[in-house]
């Protein structure tokens, strides 16, 4: 990651949230597309050395993205993002959860609400994400699972992908 680009990862245990502010060297429209189109998500949405594959993508209010992160040995870790609200190129909200291969939410792992906002910042895009959990225990669980490290690696992959569009 370019050290001059903004990257904040803030944990608020009083409100059970993680706030991530991340700047990218690309226009807002391109960054929006990378977050909302499966053919682009599949190229970056997993920490190294994992890869991602989309099972289903229906990017609309009431739709969902069902995907797997795959480790180098081929083990699949399934997730689902249920889109609640969409304001094109500006914001979307969604419920995120771990699932089994058939798409059933795993109730023993935390579910969260993502509120993702896209802004112009000169020639760059700034993505402001607030991830809210139901309980402090859920928040602490994802932190212990490596949320900060995983998200940092994942967003670095997006940096790499964005460079291919120059």
From TrEMBL:
Organism taxonomic ancestry: Bacteria, Pseudomonadati, Pseudomonadota, Gammaproteobacteria, Oceanospirillales
InterPro entries in alphabetical order: ASHA1/2-like_C (IPR013538), START-like_dom_sf (IPR023393)
Similarity field: Belongs to the AHA1 family.
Organism: Hahella chejuensis (strain KCTC 2396)
A family per Pfam: AHSA1
Protein known as: Uncharacterized conserved protein
Domain Activator of Hsp90 ATPase homologue 1/2-like C-terminal: 26-162
């Amino acid at each position: 990651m370019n050290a001059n680009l903004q990257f904040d990862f803030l944990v608020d245990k009083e409100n059970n949230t993680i706030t991530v502010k991340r700047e990218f060297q690309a226009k807002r429209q391109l960054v929006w597309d990378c977050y909302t189109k499966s053919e682009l998500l599949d190229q970056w949405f997993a920490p190294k050395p994992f890869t991602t594959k989309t099972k289903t993508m229906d990017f609309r209010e009431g739709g969902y993205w069902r995907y797997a992160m795959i480790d180098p040995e081929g083990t699949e870790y399934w997730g689902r993002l249920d889109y609640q609200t969409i304001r094109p190129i500006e914001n979307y909200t969604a419920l995120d959860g771990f699932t089994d291969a058939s798409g059933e939410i795993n109730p023993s792992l935390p579910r969260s609400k993502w509120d993702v906002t896209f802004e112009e910042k000169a020639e760059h895009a700034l993505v402001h994400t607030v991830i809210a959990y139901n309980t402090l225990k859920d928040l602490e669980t994802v932190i212990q699972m490596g949320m900060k490290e995983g998200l940092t690696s994942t967003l670095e992959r997006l940096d790499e992908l964005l460079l291919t569009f120059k």
